[in-house]
Amino acid sequence: QKEVEQNSGPLSVPEGAIASLNCTYSDRGSQSFFWYRQYSGKSPELIMSIYSNGDKEDGRFTAQLNKASQYVSLLIRDSQPSDSATYLCAVNAGGGNKLTFGTGTQLKVEL
Amino acid sequence: KAGVTQTPRYLIKTRGQQVTLSCSPISGHRSVSWYQQTPGQGLQFLFEYFSETQRNKGNFPGRFSGRQFSNSRSEMNVSTLELGDSALYLCASSLKTSGGSNTGELFFGEGSRLTVL
Predict the structure, then answer these.
(1) Are the CB atoms for B92 and B35 separated by under 8 Å?
(2) Which among B37, B25, B9, B44 is positioned nearest to B108, based on CA atoms?
(3) Do B46 and B60 contact (CB within 8 A), yes or no?
(4) Which residue numbers in chain B have pLDDT < 70?
(5) A19, A73, A81, A83: least buried by Cβ within 10 Å?
């Protein structure tokens, strides 16, 4: 069983729509949760971090965390073609900077 | 502010050889982590260094090793290369090291793409 699971996609949404990306994790001791974006041929970049249950908003991005359900999600409002990328969910259960990554969801925003 | 710098960007080796990859973190960042990225396994944690000490280690064989210098620069070494070691090796630096709410906020370099023939 994978420790962090994501649907690989591709998830296709029209420009201007809301994109919803989901992630589940298996370690109940996980404390920190992250979303990284990776464009093709580039390295991952951090876009959101969340540490407590509920929602956290930053511009067009909203991260949602439900520890009881072991579920993390990322909403992207007003999706733009420039949002087309692979979105990686990452979880920190062991402290330090040891992250467990999901395999990523490919998002395609279509004109 | 300069980002994380990794060298070399690309390299080709043959089975049995060894390779050393270098990483210079963002100025002021004392934690350096290494990850391996492959199409099949995704991003997998190799190890983390802080103050020249290995703080965490992933599930990789002993052929994979690393070190950190007093200026926070880090190197990783892979000995006796195997075909399966072909991957993108990513270095990431972080301002935070342990505890606190910012642990896990990583800044990645562009990576070193290793091909083993």
Answers:
(1) yes
(2) B25
(3) yes
(4) 1, 97-102
(5) A81
Surface-to-core class of residue B98, CB atoms within 10 Å of its CB (0-12 exposed, 13-18 middle, 19+ buried): middle
Cβ proximity of B104 and A99 under 8 Å: yes
The answer to whether residue B54 neighbours chain A at the CB level (below 8 Å) is: no
Cis preceding-peptide flag for A10 (omega within 30 of 0): yes
DSSP string, A30-96: --EEEEEEE-TTS--EEEEEE-SSEEEEETTEEEEEETTTTEEEEEESS--GGG-EEEEEEEE-SST
Q: B17 in contact with A at a CB cutoff of 8 Å?
A: no
Closest-CA distance, A91 to chain B, in angstroms, reads 8
Interface test with chain B among A30, A46, A72, A99, by most B beta carbons within 10 Å = A99
The distance in angstroms from the start CA to the end CA of chain B is 37
Write the pLDDT tens digit of every residue in A12-50: 999 999 999 999 999 998 989 999 999 999 999 999 999
Nearest CA in chain B to A35: B105
